[in-house]
Amino acid sequence: MTQEQGPVCPHCNENLQPFELPDNTGWETGFQLACFNDECPYFVRGWEHMQEKYAVKASYRYRVDPTSGKASPLAVWSTDAIKDRILDANVSADSDDTPDDGSSS
Predict the structure, then answer these.
(1) What is the phi-psi region of residue 23: left when phi exceeds 0, alpha when psi lies from -120 to 50, beta otherwise?
(2) Residues 44-54: what's their mean pLDDT?
(3) What residues contact 34, with CB distance under 8 A and at least 6 apart?
(4) Across residues 19-30, what is the average pLDDT?
(5) pLDDT tens-digit map of 70-84
(6) Burial of 32 (0-12, 13-18, 19+ CB in 10 A)
(7) What global pTM score does this model have?
(8) DSSP label at 8?
(9) Would you list the domain boundaries of the chain?
(10) Alpha-carbon distance 64 to 71, whole Å?
């Protein structure tokens, strides 16, 4: 059995994972996709960049809006930040408001 390859991070080639957005964010969906690989070069170099440029202890993860396909940084304040919002689901770029969790009604 092979699993369908979803969107991947261009910095580390890991699969992007869906994560739940807080309520009332203004985004078209209730989730977005992000790279949660702690060894991703984008995430790793973000710590130094944010400290040097903004004097803050923070980094960012690669994020994609599944509706538009546009990428942008997802600011994080620790390696565990936002990981509690990762959804256990399969998604595609043309998903509607909620990811398909594989269950049927």
Answers:
(1) beta
(2) 97
(3) 16, 17, 19, 61, 62, 63, 64, 74, 82
(4) 81
(5) 999 999 999 999 999
(6) buried
(7) 0.77
(8) B
(9) 17-85
(10) 4
